[in-house]
Recover the amino acids of this structure.
């Protein structure tokens, strides 16, 4: 098994006719993911890579009852509406690849998702990859076979680029992954680290997790709270970027947009201190992650 | 990106929030607001400018001009002062704190309130906002009562907070703060200072060193600058391009980053790209490089991998040989942060040899 993307995953792509949407569609089909329908208002009746396009989610669902996942690749201004449309029709998993959604729109998506009990990953998510099973989004592009290998390590990262980088480093060291999830680095995100770690916690195939976090926001501190409270027990190796920001003026936004330092949390020192205290292992570089994993995971990786 | 005080106050004016009478002074203009006493404020981004001597008070016009001379063209906390805001000094009978921002824990907007202004964001009371309901007036009034604002001030302050909410949402800011909100002797409410953060990043942040950096990816760029500093390198700048930028975007960034004098190296670095077209970004980089005068002779370390990387590196090898650039090329077989040490070694050895 894996998390979020498994053999039962049947995908709808909202925004399928755009450049990013059609590329994601091609790559996902190429990886064996079952993309069954697409939606672009006004383009109903067309086909993208052989996948039928509908004007509305309702129409797509009427023809393809098996849809259980939506990938949103619309322009930024249309993301909220697309997400609300998917939720209104009961699609339980939404992965938002689209970038530049405003924090207010994302807040509304998160509030509605709670009401509908929908799981939202993103916005600005590079995607979700369960090696050899399937993938959502642009993760790994077309060269997935060289990057992702099947195994027992969960990967969760705010950075899309580093999701791939971590997977390459693990795969070269002969360590496969159960699922890799790019949660995105926006100020407000549909799923934070804890949300994903709780899924890995329940997944029998996942033995430990590699996490990439960065300065800003409080989701790394929240992981520390959950680990300290023993709500998350599987080992975690974390890499945190942005130590240098300690020396920069306040108000300088670097990396992703999620950089609000709040309630005395969010800075580099705060993250490292609370995570170490909770027993999370901090790796200084990505390259030392495989050796650390071999030391802390007793089963043969 | 944090706005300067006067930029924030322009947004206040646009949304009907009163600000003190003021004149923005540069080295080019003159004039003072119509007032008896003045507050003279350096327009810099640093938060603690008052402590650093960036805010001066003057009892008369001559004093204000004197204070201006002390600030204009100087540096406050290493930031050059190009503009100074001269305002009427307001003597408040009350000073309040009000702000909107996003809370990453409740994953939504919050209203922050304190009946003692000037104390800052950390001591304010936090009220999460239900985005599906919005922020009706009665909610604001309930929050003001819960923060123990005096009865007589609840209606006028609620009016200003409603305007601040409109600004916060319509201008897509991630922080909109009035600190302090002053109540004057005649019962008027005025925003004496502004702090607005648009959340977006500046394209290039100067960092004062001598190794120019073109980093890809929000997360990777942070790790790479950490690694460069750890290896003893001095970054000249921070810039980062994400997603799949067209070549001309990279060209412009390259020109901007390499326009700095005294560079000893250039580091083009990123993780294993998911969907960035490496050939396109490298083509954009080379086009920018060709326009930089004088022609860069310092070492250029490139560590990139992902779609069309082979084509990109073939192109770089040809350009390097034909046009005489000192390229050093690495793919994902060399650790990303490992190329930090290579960059530092090449840059500083190279510098010494001339």
């Amino acid at each position: 098994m894996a998390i979020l993307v498994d053999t039962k995953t049947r995908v709808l792509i909202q925004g399928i006719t755009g450049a990013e949407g059609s590329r994601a569609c091609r790559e996902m089909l190429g990886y064996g993911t079952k993309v069954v329908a697409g939606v672009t208002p006004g383009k109903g009746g067309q086909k993208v890579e052989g996948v039928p396009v509908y004007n509305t989610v309702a129409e797509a669902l009427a023809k393809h009852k098996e849809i259980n996942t939506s990938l949103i690749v619309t322009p930024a201004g249309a993301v909220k509406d697309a997400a609300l449309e998917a939720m209104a029709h009961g699609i339980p998993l939404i992965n938002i690849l689209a970038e530049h959604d405003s924090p207010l729109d994302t807040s509304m998506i998160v509030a509605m998702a709670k009401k509908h009990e929908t799981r939202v990953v993103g916005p600005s998510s590079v995607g979700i990859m369960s090696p050899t099973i399937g993938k959502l989004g642009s993760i790994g592009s077309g060269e997935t076979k060289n990057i992702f290998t099947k195994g027992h390590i969960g990967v969760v990262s705010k950075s899309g680029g580093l999701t791939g980088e971590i997977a390459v480093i693990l795969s070269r060291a002969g360590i496969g992954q159960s699922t890799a999830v790019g949660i995105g680095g926006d100020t407000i995100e549909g799923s934070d680290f804890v949300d994903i770690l709780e899924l890995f916690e329940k997944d029998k195939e996942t033995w430990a997790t590699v996490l990439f976090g960065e300065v800003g926001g409080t989701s790394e501190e929240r992981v520390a709270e959950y680990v300290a409270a023993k709500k998350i027990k599987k080992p975690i190796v974390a890499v945190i970027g942005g130590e240098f920001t300690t020396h920069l003026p306040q108000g300088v936004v670097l990396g992703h947009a999620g950089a609000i330092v709040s309630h005395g949390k969010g800075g580099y020192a705060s993250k490292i201190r609370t995570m170490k205290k909770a027993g999370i292992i901090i790796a200084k570089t990505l390259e030392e992650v495989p050796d650390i994993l071999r030391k802390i995971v007793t089963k043969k990786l | 990106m944090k706005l300067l005080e006067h930029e924030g106050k322009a947004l206040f004016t646009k949304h009907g929030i009163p600000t003190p009478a003021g004149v923005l002074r540069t080295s080019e203009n003159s004039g003072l607001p119509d007032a008896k006493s003045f507050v003279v404020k350096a327009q810099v981004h640093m938060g603690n400018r008052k402590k650093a001597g960036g805010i001066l008070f003057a009892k008369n016009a001559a004093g204000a001009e004197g204070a201006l001379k002390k600030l204009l063209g100087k540096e406050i906390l290493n930031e050059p002062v190009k503009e100074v805001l001269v305002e009427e000094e307001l003597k408040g009978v009350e000073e309040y704190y009000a702000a909107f921002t996003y809370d990453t824990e409740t994953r939504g907007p919050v209203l922050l309130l304190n009946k003692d202004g000037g104390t800052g964001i950390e001591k304010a009371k936090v009220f999460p906002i239900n985005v599906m309901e919005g922020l009706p007036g009665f909610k604001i009034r309930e929050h003001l009562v819960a923060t123990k604002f005096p009865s007589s001030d609840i209606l006028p302050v609620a009016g200003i907070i409603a305007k601040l909410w409109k600004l916060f949402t319509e201008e897509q800011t991630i922080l909109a703060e009035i600190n302090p909100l002053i109540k004057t002797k005649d019962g008027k409410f005025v925003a004496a200072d502004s702090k607005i953060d648009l959340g977006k990043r500046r394209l290039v942040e100067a960092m004062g060193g001598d190794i120019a950096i073109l980093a890809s990816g929000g997360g990777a760029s942070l790790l790479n600058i950490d690694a460069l500093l750890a290896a003893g390198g001095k970054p000249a700048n921070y810039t980062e391009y994400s997603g799949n930028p067209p070549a001309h975007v990279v060209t412009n960034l390259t020109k901007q980053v390499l326009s700095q004098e005294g560079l000893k190296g250039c580091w083009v670095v990123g993780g294993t790209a998911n969907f960035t077209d490496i050939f396109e970004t490298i083509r954009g980089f080379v086009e920018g490089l060709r326009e930089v005068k004088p022609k860069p002779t310092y070492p250029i370390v490139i560590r990139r991998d992902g779609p069309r990387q082979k084509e990109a590196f073939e192109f770089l090898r040809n350009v390097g040989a034909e046009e005489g650039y000192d390229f050093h090329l690495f793919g994902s077989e060399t650790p990303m942060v490992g190329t930090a040490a290579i960059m530092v070694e090449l840059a500083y050895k190279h510098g010494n040899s001339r």
Summary: The domain at 10-296 of chain A is CATH 3.40.50.261 (Rossmann fold). Chain A touches chain B through 67 residues (CB under 8 Å).
